[in-house]
Amino acid sequence: MTEDFEAAWRQALADSRAQLESAHEHTRSLQRALISNRRIGIATGILMVQHTLTDREAFDYLVQVSQQHNRKVADIAEDVIYTGHLPDPPA
User: Fold this and answer.
1) What CATH number is attached to the domain comprising 65?
2) Closest to 44 (Cα-Cα) out of 56, 27, 29, 32
3) Measured between alpha carbons, how far is 50 from 4 in angstroms, rounded to an integer?
4) In which domain, by residue range, is 27 found?
5) 69, burial (CB in 10 Å: exposed 0-12, middle 13-18, buried 19+)
6) Per the domain annotation, does 31 fall within a domain?
7) What digits encode the pLDDT tens for the residues 23-82?
8) Domain for residue 90, yes or no?
9) Are 81 and 46 in contact (CB under 8 A)?
């Protein structure tokens, strides 16, 4: 009976560790998404001021440029934040 108990305990511990690691990864993913969302919001605000756009129009503009360049919206947003401009249209 003791061996069965130890085996069950080890399995429960391994399962708990796996669940904890999964929860940590989920937390890290949510943190990255939150940061990305904030950066996209900053870039949206810059475009709103520069081009007299609504928040929706500015976001749609970021998405459109993202698709044209085949890059993530967050990467385009970083360009806008650091340069103040959208990247030139692709050739």
Assistant:
1) 1.10.10.10
2) 56
3) 69
4) 2-83
5) middle
6) yes
7) 999 999 999 999 999 999 999 999 999 999 999 999 999 999 999 999 999 999 999 999
8) no
9) yes
Residue 24 inside a domain? The answer is: yes
For residue 6, give both structure tokens. Answer: 């130890």
Contacts 24+ apart (CB under 8 A), 45-52: 46/80, 46/81, 46/84, 47/80, 47/86, 50/84
- Contact, 27 vs 65, CB < 8 A? no
Give pTM, 2 decimals: 0.75
Residue 91 predicted with pLDDT over 90: no
CA atoms within 13 A on the CB side of 51: 20
Number of domains in the chain: 1
Q: Which residues contact 26 (CB under 8 A, 6 or more apart)?
A: none
